């Protein structure tokens, strides 16, 4: 008989609930013992029955394990708090940097210059000049790359044009040769040699 899957909900029948508790409690205690032996782990298990009866297992001192757990929990809480403080500090620092960058951006756009000193204005001017130098350098680089690309395309087009002209010239030459052959076949070699004499004899024999 196939055993059905147990639904994970409270067992309403008190007797069945008690039997299930006893079986699963013993199984859980056995698994805790096996885990401590097989894996050399420090295991502490505490179970309270529905009536408040205590069941426990520990492969060493229960109090020692509980103290260790509490100390570890405190360390984790302190670490988490320190991590939150570090995150907050980093957030504040980034906020200040963003505000500073926003102010610098407005100044570079020509806004908020009334309160700037001569030194700050000179510094902004030098910064703008450096930016313009970088912009022009990048612009010239892109123009140079574009010119090189266009020259390569021009070279390819010239080569293709030369190949087409060569192909057309070859085809025209073949056509001329074919026309010459057809002309020779139509006239005939012998007729070309004696054609004028035949015409003179024909005209001489005609009645006047």
TrEMBL record:
Pfam families: K-box, SRF-TF. It comes from the Eukaryota. It is found in: Nucleus. GO terms for biological process: flower development; plant organ development; positive regulation of transcription by RNA polymerase II. Residues 118-167 form a coiled coil. InterPro entries: MADS-box/MEF2_TF (IPR050142), MEF2-like_N (IPR033896), TF_Kbox (IPR002487), TF_MADSbox (IPR002100), TF_MADSbox_sf (IPR036879). Residues 84-178 form the K-box domain. The keyword Calcium does not apply. Keywords: Coiled coil, DNA-binding, Nucleus, Transcription, Transcription regulation. GO terms for molecular function: DNA-binding transcription factor activity; protein dimerization activity; RNA polymerase II transcription regulatory region sequence-specific DNA binding. One of its GO terms (cellular component) is nucleus. Residues 1-61 form the MADS-box domain. Its main location: nucleus. PANTHER family: SERUM RESPONSE FACTOR HOMOLOG. This is Agamous-like MADS-box protein AGL19. The gene is LOC111491162.
